[in-house]
Amino acid sequence: MTIKKKALGRGLSALLESSDTDVTSNKLEVDGSKHLVGSVSNITIAQIEANPFQPRTTFEKEALVELAESIKVHGIIQPITVRKLGYDKYQLISGERRFRASKIAGLRSVPAYVRVANDQAMLEMALVENIQRENLDAIEVAISYKRLIDECNLTQEQLSDKVSKQRSTVTNYLRLLKLPTSIQLSIREGKISMGQARTLINIENFENQLKVFNSIISDDLSVREAEELVRTLKKTKAGLAKKITNLPIEYQELQDALHKHFSKKAIVTGNNKGSGKIIIPFKSNAELDLLVKKLDL
């Protein structure tokens, strides 16, 4: 089996590794003498504007304040990266957390690499830098992938190569954008995982999606439990809505009795022939042991 290497992406790695794109590595003339400007330049914060291609839209205030306190004590250990737009005007390429924290810390200037980059390279650099962060939520990754495909005219296969991900992984992220806005928001807020969200994608009816989604939240269903719920509910010809809300009265009474006895929401399904299922979810071996004791097995 061939394992893909973790890569920065051709556009990003080419820009960061090429001295031709680094303005600070070129010889500049100051006071009539030529010299190398080290590896970075100190740039006034007021001269730097935000990156319009930044795929990350939320930054935790508490984490920024903690970083700002660290910067006050230790300074900026890793310089930010910018591109020059014109005379005394720069645009942020990467390092937005450090840039924001520096402003909170009251710095007037920050150390920065000055690069040459076009819009497509900017988007790719911002995307790749962000998707490698562990705390980036799945919707932010999906939106970044979608922008790179749309704005840089890439196929999913080409995008897969650029970000060193399997094509199926890229596809799964992009499919999340088909979910209702309320469910996407719950993914961003960490209320449901990407795995739980994926169980909802193949449910065609919007109302049924929301009903299963609400069950995942209220009953704290795992991915497997959510998948089992969807599979079970799809077997009825009456559809998900009837399965969830229009059970025969005797089944509803049974569900209520089971819920009261086990202190967990049970799922009862059945058909006109008298066959059906009773599902009582559990999240751990301890919960299973408790269920077994209550069953008096």
Q: In terms of topology, how is this protein built?
A:
Elements: H1 10-17, E1 27-30, E2 33-36, E3 41-44, E4 48-49, H2 61-74, E5 80-86, E6 89-94, H3 96-104, E7 109-115, H4 119-131, H5 138-151, H6 156-163, H7 167-175, H8 181-188, H9 194-201, H10 206-218, H11 223-234, H12 240-245, H13 249-262, E8 267-270, E9 276-279, H14 285-295
Parallel strand pairs: 4-6, 5-7
Antiparallel strand pairs: 1-2, 3-7, 5-6, 8-9
Briefly characterize the structure:
The protein is an alpha/beta fold and 297 residues long.
Structure notes:
The chain is an alpha/beta fold and 297 residues long. It has a domain at 10-27 and 36-118: Conserved hypothetical protein from pyrococcus furiosus pfu- 392566-001, ParB domain. The protein is 49% helix and 14% strand. It contains 14 helices and nine strands. Strand 8 (267-270) and strand 9 form a beta hairpin. Helix 9 runs antiparallel to helix 10 (206-218) and helix 9 (194-201) runs parallel beside helix 11.
State the helix count: 14
CATH third-tier fold name of the domain at 10-27 and 36-118: Conserved hypothetical protein from pyrococcus furiosus pfu- 392566-001, ParB domain
Order of helices and strands: HEEEEHEEHEHHHHHHHHHHEEH
What strand line-up does the widest sheet have?
3-7-5-6-4
Indicate the radius of gyration in whole angstroms: 27 Å
Secondary-structure class: alpha/beta
Counting copies of identical and different chains, the oligomeric state is single chain
Low-confidence stretches: 1-17, 25-38, 237-243
Distance from N terminus to C terminus (CA atoms, Å) equals: 47 Å
Strand residues, percent: 5-15%
Mean pLDDT: 76
Q: State the name of the first-level CATH class of the domain at 10-27 and 36-118.
A: Alpha Beta
CATH architecture name of the domain at 10-27 and 36-118? Alpha-Beta Complex
Shape: elongated
Percent range of helical residues: 40-55%
Largest sheet: 5 strands, mixed
Query: How many β-strand runs?
Result: 9
